[in-house]
Amino acid sequence: MVESPFFRARILGVCLMCGSAALFTFSGCNPAPAVAPTSGAGTSGTEATHDDHDHGDHEHGEHEHAGHHHHAEHGPHHGTLVLLGDEEFHVEVVLDAEHGKLLAYPLDGAAEKALTIEQPEIELVYTVKTSKEKEGLPAEPTTGKLTAGKDEAGNQVFTLEAADLKGVKMFDGHFGPIKFGDKEFAETKFKFPEGNHVH
Questions:
Q1: Least confident residue range of 41-50, 134-143, 181-190
Q2: The domain spanning residue 86 has which CATH number?
Q3: Is the dihedral of CA 101, 102, 107, 110 positive or negative?
Q4: In a domain, 152, yes or no
Q5: Which candidate, 164, 143, 148, places its Cα nearest to that of 101?
Q6: Which pLDDT score is estimated for 150?
Q7: CA distance 105 to 162
């Protein structure tokens, strides 16, 4: 049978359509897989963020530590702290107003550890506010000597007993020279019970 050009073109068109349909079907059944993340990428990404966060907290903590200069409010005996030098040492002052007894404990720079100093006494000049001040008369300072000794725990303590300290709640005072090792501190002024820390 003789095929006309028109018939051959028709057959060719049908074949092309079938091939396209088959290709479409094959592609639809086997879609290209999505790109998988590199092994551990998600975890390391989380860890990096966490590490950055931790590092930031660490730097922040160091900044706070550097910027914050801690001052102890009270000594081991809950007394008033008098600092000497650039917080190199402290003297903790405890007043037993009922018995008119004043105690002074040498302490380290952190106001935590008891120290022993090589001097038998400490001079204290103190001024107690009295009724004379209300009358316009100045209060007169008193000079006393705190004598070295040991407390029940074996720590060094300097003691002064004075009748004019009975019933007292506050006074102005200053210590005479106090020597810690090779460092001597001249007169050190303070207020009781505030101490001499500058905030």
A1: 41-50
A2: 2.60.40
A3: positive
A4: yes
A5: 164
A6: 97
A7: 18
